[in-house]
Amino acid sequence: MVLWSDGSDSSEHTVEYMSSASDDGTIKVPASTEDSDFEGPEIDMYVLCHGHGKAAERRVAFEGIHIGRGFLCCAEKEGKNCGLVEWIDPSWPNTLENALSKLWSMYEQSKRDRNEESLMHSFAVHDLTQEKKKLQAGYEKLVEEEKYDTVKNLAAAQATVIRNMKLKLAEETKNLQIHIDELKKTVEESNVKLEGIKAIING
Predict the structure, then answer these.
(1) Domain range enclosing 38
(2) Among 36, 54, 84, 125, which is most exposed with the fewest C-beta within 10 angstroms?
(3) Residue 21 within any structural domain of the chain
């Protein structure tokens, strides 16, 4: 990253950013991006943070109209961070700030749209999941009903077969009895004839 100066006092730029102070009075540290040319502790100028007296940390802003500007901030990782120490790079020209502001608004709107789309997608997935559960329950119920109907139909078919077999057996039994009666009658008639023949012979 190329650092430059327009002759203005860096403290002026620090004050410029104080509108981003949090409710507890801590000055917000701008969001930053990685830059191998401007990172780590500030050892050249040896600038100390206000609250801890430690060497400030180099960062490059990635936020709003300050994108690309180098700044120094408190390097405290634990406990209360005393926030921004000072800007290293001066503010961008007004025309560029306006362009960055518009681009950042578009970026933020895009994030909101993606979040809203993701939320709607989550709702849709939830609705589809619930619908899938209902369909699964309906399918399982249908399968159970199908099994019940199959067993019921099978039992009815078996009952019909048994009933038909009983009717057929009864019919065959009746026919067999008739045949037996006819045989008995024939035997009786034969016996009568035989007795007649015996009487003629013995007479």
Answers:
(1) 10-92
(2) 36
(3) yes
Establish if 100 belongs to a structural domain.
Answer: no
pLDDT digits (tens, 9 = 90+) for 122-174: 888 888 888 888 888 888 888 888 888 888 888 888 989 899 999 999 899 99
Residues 147 and 88 in one domain: no
Q: What is the pLDDT of residues 42-52, one digit of tens each?
A: 877 778 888 88
* Cβ contact 70:37 at 8 Å: no
Give the predicted TM-score (pTM) of the model: 0.48
